[in-house]
Design brief:
The protein has 21 helices and 8 strands. Helix 6 packs parallel to helix 8.
Length: about 500
């Protein structure tokens, strides 16, 4: 039988569709547990719906501490979703956000590569792989990823056609981010900077090869985006929130995603970095035409990803599509038999379709039952099933605490505070790390105090006496406090597990 080579775009539509929709299978890799942050996001949304925007803390024991709810709109959204649909609704939210992100990234790659479907599909799949395994959680970041990808898509369309209509969505994206994830709002301007830099260069040095686009229009759009940033409940404080929330050793100690990639990923991170650098070196040794915006976008997001593990998601969402410009001429061909479709070809189609349907069926099963546990605890509005292995131990701790009808002054550290808050208690601290910095709360640096306790810079007895804790929930990671309480005759251990310990003042 005669064979011929066909390019990817010449392959049958069903083959292209299967390839393009491959990211759907990656939904099965998404963690179906509620993220730790959800347990302070949900009660925050509940508080806002019932009482309005808070200015002092209502979750921890530090009720006089000033706070800014930089994710307020997302907390309200989570409150309504979970109140109505429970865990399945929250996981469905993540799936929908993931698929929308996958679509936008694919469209961006298609635009950058001048509709090279194979390169676009391959790059989008790589982005989707990174997001599905590491970053698709019940957190506001899912909305942020969509926002920044949509921003760059609009900027890329503008760069190609120089039409202001493509910049019109940008102020609305700014409005969305300032209210759903204010800490990332200024990053919108940083991700747009490569386009501004290229527009400035083309204005100064006009070339025949590169089509110029208006720097003035970009500056007008930037001004509108900046103005939109003021439309939030906390004004300028939300807009500058990033400056008082990052760069602290105390936070990076407790939040691994704020640590450098090489520190968290160890050898794997170094290997991946070397591979990326090798690819860059291979590409840049060839004579080819470059666009400044793609070089800056790729290099900038790569640098962000190396600096913090959390920021590597932005390299996946923006850096990988930027890289496709350098390989947009790459062509892939497949050997196929000429003539009519054979029985063997039909079998291949059937197998692919069956696999796709099976994946979708499995996905439906995951949405309906994935990870749901039978242990249930009451909250102020709904029932929840704890899926986090540490929280199963906490459910037992909470049952013990519920038996005490007196005043409970509760210590809980960074890992467990939010789940206890979710169940109606007011512990010492929780996962909202930046709010416990003095630069944000204006009262006291509780994060540094906890950091000093873990590092034995302050005596545990002085610490517990300062707050008069009568109950302490301690994780197995808190070595100093845990060992000290075990040896302290003033405290009795009421509960013990591999993950959590409960101590009570005698």
């Amino acid at each position: 039988m005669n064979e011929k080579k066909l390019g990817f775009d010449e392959m049958p539509k069903w083959f292209q569709l299967v390839f393009a929709f491959a990211p759907i299978v990656l939904l099965l890799a998404i963690n179906t547990n509620l993220d730790n942050d959800f347990y302070f996001l949900y009660p925050t949304g509940e508080h806002i719906v019932i009482n309005g925007f808070p200015t002092t803390d209502f979750l921890s024991m530090h009720s006089s501490m000033h706070i800014i709810v930089q994710q307020w709109l997302c907390t309200v959204l989570f409150y309504f979703i979970y109140s109505g649909l429970g865990r399945a609704g929250m996981i469905a939210f993540v799936y929908i956000a993931y698929l929308l992100l996958a679509f936008i990234v694919y469209r961006l790659c298609m635009l950058i590569t001048d509709k090279n479907r194979f390169v676009s599909c391959a790059a989008a799949f790589l982005t989707d792989l990174v997001i599905s395994f590491s970053y698709a959680h019940t957190r506001p970041q899912m909305i942020t990823y969509i926002a920044v990808a949509l921003e760059v898509l609009c900027l890329e369309k503008f760069a190609r056609e120089n039409s202001f209509k493509y910049l019109i969505p940008l102020p609305f994206i700014s409005l969305l981010v300032i209210n759903t994830h204010a800490a990332m709002w200024l990053m919108l301007f940083i991700f747009a900077a490569p386009y501004g830099a290229e527009a400035l260069l083309l204005t100064i040095k006009k070339t025949e090869k590169e089509k110029a686009y208006s720097l003035l229009k970009l500056l007008i759009a930037a001004a509108l985006c900046f103005g939109a940033g003021f439309i939030n409940p906390y004004g300028i404080k939300s807009m500058l929130y990033i400056f008082s929330s990052f760069g602290y050793d105390e936070i990076s100690l407790y939040i691994t995603e704020m640590q450098p990639l090489y520190k968290e990923a160890s050898i794997l991170g170094l290997i991946l970095a070397c591979i990326v650098l090798m690819i860059i070196a291979a590409v840049f040794t060839k004579e080819r035409h470059f666009r400044l915006r793609f070089v800056l976008l790729f290099a900038g997001t790569l640098a962000l990803g190396i600096m913090t593990l959390k920021s590597s998601a932005y390299f996946a969402v923006l850096g990988i599509p930027a890289f496709t410009y350098l390989v947009k001429d790459l062509k892939i061909s497949f050997k196929v038999s000429e003539g009519e479709v054979t029985k063997k070809d039909r079998k291949k189609r059937i197998i692919l379709i069956v696999l796709l349907v099976a994946a979708l069926a499995a996905l439906g099963g995951v949405i309906a039952t994935g990870g749901l546990d039978s242990d249930k605890t009451e909250t102020s509005a709904v029932k929840t099933e704890s899926a986090h292995k540490d929280y199963k131990s906490l459910d037992k701790v909470i049952k013990i605490l519920n038996k005490d009808s007196g005043d409970i002054i509760l210590y809980a550290g960074f890992d467990y505070g939010q789940y206890l808050e979710f169940n109606g208690y007011h512990p010492y601290i929780d996962g909202r790390a930046e709010l416990f910095l003095k630069d944000n709360n204006g009262e006291y640096d509780y994060m540094k105090e906890l950091y000093d306790l873990d590092k034995k810079k302050i005596n545990y007895k002085d610490f517990v006496n300062k707050y008069n804790f009568n109950y302490l929930v301690v994780s197995n990671k808190e070595d100093y406090l845990l060992k000290s309480l075990k040896q302290d005759k003033d405290y009795e251990m009421l509960f013990k597990s591999k993950e959590a310990y409960l101590f009570k003042l005698k």
